[in-house]
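Let's study today's protein:

:::
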Amino acid sequence: MKQQGFTLTELMVALVISSILLLGISTFLIASQKSWQTQLRLTSSQEIERFVVQHLRRAIRQASGVDSQSDEETLILEYHAQEGSRNCLGQLQEAGSVYTDRFHVSGDQLRCNGVSLISGVAQIRFTYGMDQNSDGRLDPSEFRAMPDDCCPVKAVTFLLSLSGINEAQQPLTYSASLRRK
């Protein structure tokens, strides 16, 4: 009677083919996981950028002025509180009062009044647009690293650099105009 089964050669061939298939599948799964993680970090970076730009633009647009102590690294905005006004931390301000919000980057975080708003921000550089020739327009030559006592600040630009996955990306420039009086 003949025995049923596989020969040693057949088993070895099946083992080699199975190993090659498993290696291919695991390589594909690892590459997919790395791609997914990269996409997740990129999405997170885009959300950080969107939050920072939206938050700063809103703060600048609502401000009544820029404090003269502002510089390239620190933006100090002045506000005249109305009913329901809130500072950058969401704290309700008393109507009729004057308050300030101080924005700067420290330790990879955008901070307002010393409190971290979001992580992932490597650097911000502010410039201040002042209509020095009183023509009602702001030319690039009218933007300075610090506010000048000659004229009120009309607009603020900020150069934003993110950390993490977008660290090598060129900084992007955004701007916003202050509230018209």
User: Anything to note?
Assistant: The mean pLDDT is 90. The radius of gyration is 28 Å. The beta strands are 65-66, 74-80, 98-106, 109-112, 115-119, 121-130, 143-144, 153-162, 172-177. The chain is about 30% helix and 30% strand.
